[in-house]
Design a protein that fits this description.
The chain is of the alpha/beta class. It contains ten helices and ten strands. The N terminus is likely disordered. The structure holds S-adenosylmethionine.
Amino acid sequence: MTTTSGAGPDDRYLLGDGSAEVEHLARQAEVYAEEAGQLLDRIGIGAGARVIHVGCGALGILDLLCARVGPGGRVVGVDREPRLLDAARQVAAQRGLPVELVEGDATGLALPSGGFDLVHERTVLLNVADRARMVAEMIRIARPGGVVALQEPDSSAWVCDPPHPAWDLLRTELVGAYRRSGKNFDMGRRIARLLRDAGLADVKVRATARVTHAGDYYQSFLLMLTSLVKAQIIAGQRVSDAEFDAQAASLRAHLQQPGTLTCQPTLWQSWGTKP
Ligand SMILES: C[S@@+](CC[C@H](N)C(=O)[O-])C[C@H]1O[C@@H](n2cnc3c(N)ncnc32)[C@H](O)[C@@H]1O
């Protein structure tokens, strides 16, 4: 597990380097494929397009992009974490996906300017301290007339019902751990403004949220994330190790009740055109 030190921006990936994150990214790709498809429908990416998924992780939407652009297109995935790129390579080989996978940092991409019809990212910006620089890089590698698209979460609607004190505590601590490391879990509401401020034209925005019940994979999403970020939460010194474990156990029991539902973080999508 990666740990943070001090209160300033921390460039390390908060979700650590374990297999749990790889497994989660595979589930995220599956569960949020519908929303990604809706985004691509609205953008109108078609056969032959040159597209890139920045921070693709273990797959992201690379499979959906391959299906849209077809054999005449080009699909590139970039990520900073070699272990996640290895996982993406394995999936691409298993599924016969014609993708180019490249190691690189989203805030300084070693790619020529103007080469892509679509530059996309999902749940990367919330992990990056220099958001404006990442967006500027995405715009740089898009061609004039090309589209830059962002998908980011926002915790504002992330609730459970019936309410539970452990939910409120763990949600607050998770968002706080991101903030202390210079990251922002509430990127969603800001992404349209980021694109407009960076000079994109015709910026569109939409937001959706999923409701889950006991037995659904995402029902325990908050517990999964807080377990990955536990060391940073404890470092905040408002919750002890033992209290964290007790709260997590209490919340797990509550989320497994048949009557308990959760609304997951809102997924905001925003896209605009490079002039
Ligand atoms: C939550 S995962 C999302 C992965 C993928 N976009 C998806 O939707 O499944 C965040 C990803 O961003 C990558 N990442 C974080 N900071 C990065 C940076 N500065 N440059 C490139 N990738 C980065 C991580 O390695 C990880 O793969």
